[in-house]
Amino acid sequence: MKTKTFGIITLIGIFLAGCATETVNIDVVHDEGKAVMALDYRDFAQAASEMIQSMIGSGRLKKSGGGRYVMTTARVTNDTMQRIDTDQLMAKIEEELMNSEQVVMTSAVGGKGAPDEMIYEMRDIRDSATGDEFNQETLAGKRTIIAPELSIAGKIFQRNIRYDSNRQQVEYYFQLMITDLTTGLRFWQKESIIGKRGSNKSVAW
Amino acid sequence: MKTITNILLLVLAFTLTACDQQPAQIHVREEIRSDDLASNIVTRPVAHAFSALIGERIEIDNAVTMRNDTGFLELHINGHNRSYNTKRFRYRIEWLDANGLMIQTKTSTWLPTSAMGKSSFSLKAVAPRVEAVDFRMDTKKWE
Lengths: 205, 143
Prior knowledge:
The complex is a heterodimer of chains A (205) and B (143).
Chain A: H1 2-19, H2 41-58, E1 69-79, H3 87-99, E2 103-105, H4 118-127, E3 150-162, E4 167-180, E5 186-199
Chain B: H1 2-20, H2 43-53, E1 58-67, E2 73-81, E3 87-96, E4 102-103, E5 111-115, E6 120-126, E7 134-141
Antiparallel strand pairs in B: 1-2, 2-6, 3-4, 3-5, 3-7
């Protein structure tokens, strides 16, 4: 009897182990996974690719007289129902713009504050007593930070629409614009839409 | 025999007349445009079934690359959907440098597109690096 019980417990154990969902790494280049109602990395990759190609293809980032524009990322608002770090979009765009050799990004100013606070921390050190510990020639002087010429701003927002009794439609709008900070004139603008239709039971936030 | 020949000639004339009615730039779809002898309520299901049977799908007519004013390589692809149904697919373009090596870029991702039945379509892509001199493109079904 004891052996029989042990055998049954072992079988149940094996059965349950077989049912456990296996964790796998995603192939982020050729992902064959199903679409989801919320925004996933593929949506950000798609939106970023469309934005980058539009910016570069427009020819507006070619600086007359040569050289590169200095650009900052201003505020990119997340107006969706999801917790999104908009850097998921902007990091890709910034990377490609810099690699295109048309733009250099500044870490000194940005919509969320300076992307790299160390710029100002080093200046605070320079102006403090601790600054005497540093070789003065290696400390940044005053009026050395280059001001940005262009700013990129935008927002991501979402609309949920009841499609029929069983399905909902979720529309995600990615809107970006580039502004000349000297004149305030808008250089470039684009909207990219990603739409999803699925079960009402799926939660898009 | 003469009567049959006359009927055939009449049918051919009707068909040719119907084909000549649409300017090449304008595509008026089936069930919107007037029926003709080649496409009507009787022949349409047969044509659709035959198209599906022989597996008509997407075909690429040409791919043209050119440098834009800012020195970036632009790719323009023209193709057409031979089938009667809308074909949705994804494409991914990789840019190659002068040595034939792939340039790593965030724009090389699977992008969705579609072509309506019996319609032409165009795709445009811009290489985000001036080093790009060539490309390769892959496609897959839009799951």
